[in-house]
Task: inverse folding
């Protein structure tokens, strides 16, 4: 075997090896569990009715984490939500947002809910952090 045949073969082997390594990297970064859920993106499902800063179809959500339930004055809450007489802790939000109409029978929040637990956690973290972000909640 002459020298150029050996080096040609080496090149092919190296090319194929790099190819596989590259494909493996792409596959890992696309499917890897390390890709975090973006809470802001989940919140985009709420903005049909809610704004952080002001009341719309739903009450404003700035500072909702830690806020007493149904406590925005001037917003016409349903009797069902008023009857909760609770506080929107992260746990309470996690409970409610999974399926609002089933958790609080008679709520006017006509929304199926965020069924994915990981998405709910990211959403609640977004709402909590928004309260101290002057760009989102001045
Ligand atoms: C179809 C419109 C609509 C959508 C979509 C919607 N909401 Fe609501 N939301 C409402 C209404 C209306 C109320 C008031 C409910 C009541 O009085 O029973 C409400 C109430 C709430 C409350 C209680 C606030 C308080 O002051 O007690 C929270 C928390 C809330 N929504 C969070 C969310 C989040 C988070 C999303 C997105 C995942 C969302 N909502 C999507 C309409 C909506």
Result:
């Amino acid at each position: 075997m002459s020298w150029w045949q050996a080096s040609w073969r080496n090149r092919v082997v190296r090319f194929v090896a790099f190819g596989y390594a590259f494909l493996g990297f792409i596959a890992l970064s696309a499917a890897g569990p390390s890709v975090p859920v973006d809470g802001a993106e989940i919140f985009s499902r709420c903005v049909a009715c809610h704004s952080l800063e002001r009341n719309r179809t739903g009450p404003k959500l700035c500072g909702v984490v830690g806020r007493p339930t149904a406590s925005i004055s001037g917003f016409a809450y349903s009797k069902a939500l008023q009857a909760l007489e609770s506080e929107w802790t992260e746990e309470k939000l996690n409970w409610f947002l999974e399926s609002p109409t089933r958790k609080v029978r008679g709520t006017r929040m006509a929304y199926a809910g965020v069924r994915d637990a990981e998405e709910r956690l990211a959403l609640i973290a977004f709402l909590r952090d928004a309260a101290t972000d002057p760009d989102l909640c001045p």
